[in-house]
């Protein structure tokens, strides 16, 4: 039975039938007539015909990483309830924590098969970015903050900070951290991509700035800190000013007071090796790939094609067991700042959108620094 035949049976117009099934206004009398006809005939509108006419499917695609995850299951249950109340259907895709399947699912749904997509996200790759940019339907990302898209996420930074502060207030002095893969930016990598950063705490300065300190040098089974021989092990990071960019992403930058400790500026050419004091401050504005080498035993390599920064120790003598860390940037790297002292490095990328922190132990005396791929400005620091 098509809509014409049903309207004739019910004794109403096709427009009235359409308003009935789409929640439009009808008099009580006509609504009762149509309801009785539906009861008698079992008539339901053709979904295919509605899709062709309205260009809407009344389906929402939900991409989830794991069916066995309790948190994901609860999110899907909540999504399902809301969609059901609004007469939408849920199209569920389970990716089993496979990045390739997740990208493929997004690509499948972008071909007008759904009215919108809810992505319960874990991590993002350049392939994710490309397919998300190509979508022509609304997208909501759940569980992660991703610039340029509507997101629903927890304050993982604040939660980790509050939990650590609570432990310290209770007298604990050796907090441990057990987490997920560092590629998960919300749960595994909300603050620092480096080796040694832990237990951050922040406060509001008198001028309104939010200042954060963290600790560096907490050892694990894989690496150590030779400074123990000299009676100390841990050190504080630089004071970092916390701000947000226009997309709400966290930025960390050294407090401006550090600039007052700079000596005379030097401007090494691209690829030039210079020797500087162990305490130094290097800034650069790269336009593509670059390699920064410090103390002839540590490199920071940036690859524009996948926006990946790799911090790698090539000399075991200065690494004390540390090996390699990576950070995948949300945007091409266009600013670099490295602040070093005799046993630590803090590397700020894209104005602090990503940070890598590590202890390192160069030989006494001057430190060799070489940046290939960009010119730089280099200062010694009076620390």
List keywords for this structure.
five-stranded parallel β-sheet; alpha+beta; six-stranded antiparallel β-sheet; elongated
Q: How is this fold's topology laid out?
A:
Elements: H1 3-10, H2 14-21, H3 28-41, H4 47-54, E1 59-64, H5 70-85, E2 89-94, H6 99-109, E3 116-120, H7 126-134, E4 139-142, E5 150-152, H8 156-169, E6 198-204, E7 210-216, E8 235-236, E9 240-244, E10 250-254, E11 273-276, E12 280-284, E13 290-294, E14 298-303, E15 308-313, H9 316-319, E16 324-328, E17 336-340, E18 344-349, E19 354-359, E20 367-372, E21 377-380
Parallel strand pairs: 1-2, 1-3, 3-4, 4-5
Antiparallel strand pairs: 6-7, 7-8, 7-9, 9-10, 11-20, 12-17, 12-21, 13-14, 13-20, 14-15, 15-16, 17-18, 18-19
Helix pairs in contact: 1-3, 6-7
Strand content: 25-35%
Count of strand segments = 21
Broad shape: elongated
Strand order within the widest beta sheet: 11-20-13-14-15-16
Mean pLDDT: 85
Low-confidence stretches: none
Helix content: 10-25%
């Amino acid at each position: 039975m098509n809509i014409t035949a049903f309207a004739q049976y019910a004794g109403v117009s096709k427009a009235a039938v359409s308003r009935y099934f789409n929640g439009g206004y009808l008099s009580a009398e006509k609504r009762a007539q149509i309801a009785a006809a539906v009861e008698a005939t079992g008539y339901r509108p053709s979904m295919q015909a509605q899709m062709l006419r309205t260009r809407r499917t009344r389906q929402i695609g939900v991409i989830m990483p794991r069916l066995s995850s309790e948190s994901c299951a609860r999110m899907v249950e909540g999504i399902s309830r809301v969609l059901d109340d609004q007469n939408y259907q849920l199209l569920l895709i389970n990716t089993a924590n496979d990045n390739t399947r997740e990208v493929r699912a997004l690509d499948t749904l972008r071909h007008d098969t759904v009215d919108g997509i809810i992505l319960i996200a874990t991590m993002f790759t350049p392939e994710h970015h490309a397919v998300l940019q190509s979508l022509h339907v609304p997208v909501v990302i759940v569980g992660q903050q991703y610039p340029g898209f509507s997101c629903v996420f927890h304050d993982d930074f604040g939660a980790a900070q509050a939990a650590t502060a609570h432990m310290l207030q209770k007298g604990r002095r050796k907090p441990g951290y057990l987490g997920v893969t560092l590629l998960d930016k919300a749960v595994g990598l909300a603050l620092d991509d480096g080796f040694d950063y832990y237990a951050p705490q922040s406060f509001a300065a008198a001028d309104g700035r939010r200042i954060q300190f963290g600790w560096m040098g907490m050892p694990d089974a894989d690496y150590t800190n030779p400074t123990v021989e000299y009676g100390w092990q841990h050190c504080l990071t630089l004071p970092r000013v916390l701000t947000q960019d226009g997309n709400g992403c966290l930025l960390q930058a050294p407090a401006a007071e550090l600039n007052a400790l700079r000596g005379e500026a030097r401007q090494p050419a691209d690829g030039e090796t210079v020797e500087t004091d162990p305490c130094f401050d290097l800034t650069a504005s790269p336009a593509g790939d670059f390699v920064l080498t410090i103390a002839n035993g540590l490199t920071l390599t940036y690859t524009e094609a996948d926006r990946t920064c790799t911090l790698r120790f090539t000399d075991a003598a200065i690494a004390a067991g540390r090996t390699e860390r990576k950070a995948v940037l949300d945007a091409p790297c266009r600013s670099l700042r490295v602040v070093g002292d005799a046993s630590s490095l803090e590397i700020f990328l894209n104005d602090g959108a990503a940070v890598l922190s590590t202890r390192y132990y160069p030989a006494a005396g001057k430190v060799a620094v070489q940046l290939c791929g960009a010119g730089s400005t280099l200062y010694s620091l009076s620390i």
